[in-house]
Amino acid sequence: MSPALRGALWMVLTVLSFVAMAVAGRELAGAMSPFETVAVRSLVGIIVLLPIAAMQGFSVLSTKRLKLHVARNAVHFVGQVSWFYALGSLALAMVTAIEFTMSLWAIVLAGLFIGERIDARRGATVVIGFLGVLVILRPGMQEVSAAALIMLMGAGFYGGSITMVKSLTRTESALSVVFYMNVIQFLLGLAVSVFDWTWPQWHDAPWIFLVGVCGLTAHYTFARALALADVSVVSPIDFLRLPATAVVGFLAYAEVVDIWVWVGAALVFGANYYNVWRASRRPAVAAAR
Predict the structure, then answer these.
(1) How many CB atoms sit inside 10 A of residue 67's CB?
(2) Contact, 265 vs 101, CB < 8 A?
(3) For residue 180, is it within any domain?
(4) pLDDT tens, 20-33?
(5) Residue 279 placed within a domain
(6) Of 45, 40, 38, the residue nearest 217 (C-alpha)
(7) What pTM did the predictor assign?
(8) Is residue 137 part of a domain?
(9) pLDDT in tens, 25-82
(10) Are 81 and 191 in contact (CB under 8 A)?
């Protein structure tokens, strides 16, 4: 198989990992708070990652940027808690549709805080993307739930996390980034929920295992996909998460997603993909000049 095709297949596995994690998060929503869910998800991640780090040598986890790891994961923690909260209150497909805005938030935040240039075309795609959010939520035409606003806020925090990861990956290994993510988010989740902790039941164990392992496989398969194929190949496949979560939501929870969620999500995705397409063409344009 060509590298592009292999990258596409790895991205399909990423989509499946995210869908499985969403289902596990939905199942755990009635059993524990979002803070506890983040804590147990991270604990599973630590248990899985420690043997891997031992095999590679614990020096792979060394870092001189612990403060940035903490700052990044404090931001990511808010996004993760918001996501798990929304999973318990909104249709799975709506959560996914709103989540797609995180790349648009990342553009805005990178422009504000690390000086990345936002030209007219890029700015226009951000505006179009957020118009897609208005189509999904339709304020003034229907009541906008608190869960939807929390998820939109969470997507913004995810965008901030993406901006920080760009800086971290210049000096840190992928294993280091993921390991500190799990350790810091476990400590944050535990600190917030320790005084109101609900012990999970044995029947929750498969969902806890699934949410923890799929959180890791999603990161790993996504990295593999990007290593083999261009972002312009990988990015459209990520949009399969929307129909996949819609089908799972319908079959498992009898959720019906209205047409406006699809229209709004298409605008958000279109804006994201245009930015990816332009970025992928820049090296070719530069070489031609």
Answers:
(1) 9
(2) no
(3) yes
(4) 999 999 999 988 99
(5) no
(6) 45
(7) 0.87
(8) no
(9) 999 998 899 999 999 999 999 999 999 989 988 888 888 889 999 999 999 999 999 9
(10) no
